[in-house]
Prior knowledge:
Layout: E1 10-12, H1 13-20, H2 24-30, E2 49-51, H3 52-59, H4 79-86
Amino acid sequence: MIRVDRRHLVRTLSDIAAQQGIAVQTLLNSGCLYADGAPEPLNAGRTRLYHSEQVDAYLASRPLPDLPTTDADEDLLDRQEAAALRGIEP
């Protein structure tokens, strides 16, 4: 879920790769986002989205900050989350 007040903090794999000065495929091949302690994607969809504060902390070898847990009506759901909320398959 993407919290409405934190949309500006969302990063894609392309954003993370650009931050590191590498290609997306190089980022994926490195496996760093699958390592222990790596931030979890914010969504379960095909386009993985990450929280920038967690990515920055991980890349700097700092503990990951907790994500907010307060829901708002304007929060953005991916299709899997929306389907689960309705009790149906995506």
